[in-house]
Amino acid sequence: MSLEAGADAAGQRLDQWLAARLAPGLSRGRVQALIRQGAVRVGGRVADSPKRKLVPGERVEMELPEPEPAAPQGEAIPLDILYEDDALIVVNKPAGLVLHPGAGNWTGTLVNALIHHCGESLSGIGGVRRPGIVHRLDKDTSGVIVAAKTDRAHRALSEAFADHGRTGDLRRAYVALVWGVPVPAAGTVDAPLGRAADRLRRAVVPAGRDDARHAVTHYAVLERFGRHGERDAMASLVECRLETGRTHQIRVHMAHIGHPLIGDRDYGTAFRTKANLLPEPLRASVQAFPRQALHARLLEFRHPDTHLSMRFEAPPPPDMGELVEAFRAL
Fold this sequence. Notes:
- This protein is α+β, with helices and mostly antiparallel strands.
- Helices cover 20% and strands 25% of the residues.
- The protein has seven helices and 15 strands.
- Strands 5, 6, 7, 8, 9, 12, 13, 14 and 15 form a nine-stranded mixed β-sheet that branches. The chain has a four-stranded antiparallel β-sheet with strand order 1-4-2-3. A two-stranded antiparallel sheet has the order 10-11.
- A hairpin with a 3-residue loop joins strand 5 and strand 6.
- Helix 1 crosses helix 2.
- It is globular, with a radius of gyration of 22 Å.
- The termini are far apart.
- The relative contact order is 0.12.
C-alpha cells in the first residue's frame, strides 16, 4: 500500500503515524515489526527506524505479507525424544528442521511434529504458531531443545531461559567447529547485536544504537586441528555457553573475533576460500558441508513441577561428527 504524509504528519514518528492510519487493522507493535523487517519505505528508501520523523509530502509504502494460516496442523514427523513427562518434552532436533511455522515454512516444522505427538496437551501459552516453544535453535543448528506441555511449565521454563542461568540452574552448551583457533583459548565475547545492513542477518553494533541488544558468549577451545603452533591451527572445536540468547548469537560473535563457523554461509563467506588449503578428501567435505557446524550439546534446567535438576546431552549428528573426525586426521 502507498500513503502520503499530510501536514498533520510533520514531526510524527513513522510507527505512530502508520499505526494511526491503519488502525484497527494493524497494531503499532506489528507496524514496528514490519519496519524492522524492511517492509516499509519512505521516499523510495527502506525506513531505518520506527522512530524516524516524517516530513509532509513524503510517500510511505508498505509491503504487507500474505495472510498466515490460522493454526498449524499436526504432522507425523519422526522425533528423537530424549525425555518426556506430563509437563514437558525434550527432543534432539536434527539440522534442517525449522522450529515453528513462518513465512516459507508453514508445514514440516518441529511444532507440527509436537502437535501430532502431544495432541491437546501441548501448552498454548506460546501462541498459535509457537505452542510449547520456550527457546530457539536455528533451522540448521542441531541439538537439545525442550518444549512445555502445560502452561505452568511454559511460564517457569520461559522465565528460566529469560534469566539465562544468572540466578537459576539453567545451563546451555554448544559445540562449534570454527576456522582457526581463538586466542586466548578461553574467553568472553561481550558485544551487542543488532540488524545488519541487509536487515536479514545480525551484526555487532554500537551499544547506543536503537536496535542494539546486550549479548554475551563464553567460549573455550576443546581441540585444535592441523596445529603447527598454538596460534596457527587450521580449525578448532570450541564449546560456547550463552549468557544471553540473541538470534544467531554464537555465529555472529565467533565471526566477530575472526573465527567464523565452518559451513556458515551467512557469517563465514570471507573464509570460504580457506577450504582450498585443505588436503583432499577433507577439502571436498568442507566445501560440501551444507550448514553451519553448530550443535546444542547440553541443556540443564530445573524441572518446573518436581524442581529436580534435569540434564540432557546429545552428541553431534553424523554429518558434523564425521567432519570433526576428518579434521582430527590432519
